[in-house]
Amino acid sequence: MPANRRLLCLLCLALATGAAESNEPLALHPQNPNRFLFRGEPIVLLTSGEHYGALVNLDFDFRTYLDELASDGLNHTRVFAGAYRETPESFGITDNPLAPAAGRFVCPWAVAETRPDGRQRFDLTSWNAGYVVRLKALMREASQRGIVVELTLFSPMYNDAIWQACPMHADNNVNGFGDCDRNEVLTLENEELSAVQIEMTRKLAEELRGVDNLYFEVCNEPYTSDVPEAWEQRIASEINRVDPDRLVSRNVASHTKRIDKAPPGVSILTFHYATPPKAVSDNSHLRVAVGANESGFRGSDDAVYRTEAWAFLLAGGAIYNNLDYSFTPAHPDGSFTSYESPGGGGPELREQLGVLKRFLDQFDLVRMRPAGEAVATSDGVSLQALADPGRCYAVYLHTPLGWKPKDLAEFASTRRSARVELDVPPGDYRLRWWDPAAGPLEDPSRLSHPGGVLQLDSPAFGIDVALCVEREGPHASQE
Fold first, then answer.
1. Where are the beta strands (DSSP E) in 20-131?
2. pLDDT tens profile 332-348
3. What is the pTM of this model?
4. Which end of the chain has the least Cβ crowding within 10 Å, N or C?
5. Three-state DSSP class for residue 291
6. E-strand spans in 19-147?
7. Cβ distance 94 to 328 under 8 Å?
8. What's the rounded Cα separation, in Å, for the pair 205 and 199?
C-alpha cells in the first residue's frame, strides 16, 4: 500500500474508532427509508470485497483486508457465517477464500474430531467458542474502520461437492443430521437441520447484540434452489425476536424482481448482477433499502464494474458490492492480479470506486430522489440521476456496455459528448464535471440561469462522465 494511502487509512481508523462507541445500530433513515443512517450520518454502502471467507478461513488476515478497503474509503463487506463453504474447484475461483484448506475452516459449531487427512467433524449441538472470538474480532476491526458488515447466514448447496463439504452433511457431524438431498437442507420439513439453523441464528443474534456495524442477510441466492419462503421468514423472525432493532436483508433475485410488499421484519432487499439497475425502480414503492450485494462474472475489466456501481447507486440504490478476486488468503491486501476467476477486482478498481464514494459524499442523499426521467440526455447514452429539485443534481452518463463487452478499448478511445438538460428554477449554479475513474475533471464553474431548461454539454469522454450541479445562495436552502 502506498504511504499516502496507508496514512489515509490510519486517519480513517482513528476517526472511526472515536465514533464507534455507544451508537445505535445501522438503521433505515427516518426521513428517507431508502437510505441508511449510521453513527448519526446518512451513508451509502460501497465496496469491492473478498469472496466471503474472511471469517471462516483461518488463513485469511481480515485486518489487512479491512485496512485495504478503508484506504480507498470503502465501507462495506459481505461475510458468510459458516453454515456454507466451498471447495477449491467451486466456480473457477482462484485461491477461493471460501474454500479453506483442510483443518483451516472455522464455523459456529465445535469440532468433535479431526480425521487423519485434516478434515473435521462437528457437533451441531455444541457452540464453538473460538469461532465467536474470531467473529467478534472481525466485527471490532471493521467497526474501527467504519465498515458495515453484512453477515450472510445461509446459502443453498449448489452441487453435491459443496453439500458434501458442509458441516450440516451427515458425513461431517457426529449427530447424524443431514442425511438428505442437498435441496432439502434449507426447509422447515427437515426438523433436525431447521432446529440447528434456528439455534445458530439465535446464538449469532445474541452474540452480536449491541454491535452497530451489522445487518443480517437470511440466505444467499435462495431462488437458485427454491428455498421455501416460510423457512426464510422463520429465520428472519428469529433475528427480529432476539434483536428487534437489527436490520434484516432478503436476497430477492438475480437482475430484478418487483416485490409488491416487503416481507415482515425485512428492511433490505438485495439483488445480484443487477445491471441495468432496474431492481431499484422496480421496488421504489417500498420503504426499504435496495442493494446490489454481488457482482462479477462479467470478465476482469474495471470499466464494467465501475459503470455498474455508478449506475446502481445513481439510480437510488443503497448498497453496491463487487466480488473482488484480487483478495485471497495469500493476498489479503488485494494485490493478486493474475487470477483466472470469472470476474474482476484489484487496486485500480477499488480506487475508482473510491471516486464514486467521494462524489456521493458531496450530497445530502436523504433529500435526493431518483430523477432519471426528469433529466434528458443525448441519444445513445445511458443516464441515471439523483436530484433534490431546485437545489442539487447528481448525473451519471455512460455508454451502454452490454453484459460482457468485447470492444472496451474501442469504447474508451472513441471520444463523444452528451448534452444534459435540467429543468431548474432561476438562480446561480455551481457546476463540476467528474471522470468516474479519476475524480474531478476541472475546477468548478458558475453560471446564472433565468429558469427553465438548462442545457449543459459534457466534456468529451470515452465510457462515462458525471456531473454535479448545485444551486448557490440562501434561496437554495430556504425553498
1. 27-29, 32-38, 41-43, 45-49, 76-80, 109-114, 120-127
2. 999 999 999 999 999 99
3. 0.94
4. C
5. strand
6. 27-29, 32-38, 41-43, 45-49, 76-80, 109-114, 120-127
7. yes
8. 10
Q: Which three cell numbers stand for residue 421?
A: 438538460
DSSP string, 351-406: HHHHHHHHHHTTS-TTT-EE-GGGEE--TT-EEEEEEETTTEEEEEEE----SS-S
**Nearest partner of 277 among 365, 400, 388, judged by Cα:** 400
Q: Are 53 and 81 in contact (CB under 8 A)?
A: no
CA distance 464 to 398: 4
With vertex at residue 244, the alpha carbon angle to CA 74 and CA 79, rounded to the nearest 5 degrees, is 35
Least confident of 9-18, 217-226, 317-326, 335-344: 9-18
265: left (phi over 0), alpha (psi -120 to 50) or beta: left
Contact 259/288 with Cβ under 8 angstroms? no
**Cβ 319 vs Cβ 357: under 8 Å:** no
Taking CA atoms, 429 is separated from 109, 110, 215, 387, 449, in Å, by 59, 62, 39, 14, 8
- Match 458558475 to its residue by C-alpha cell: 446
Q: Report in angstroms the alpha-carbon separations of 299 from 86, 248, 340, 355, 358.
A: 21, 31, 10, 22, 26
Encode pLDDT of 226-242 as tens digits. 999 999 999 999 999 99
Residue closest to 27 by CA, chosen among 15, 41, 13, 16: 41
End-to-end CA distance of the chain, in Å? 46
Residues whose CB falls within 8 Å of the CB of residue 133, separated by 6 or more in sequence, listed in order: none
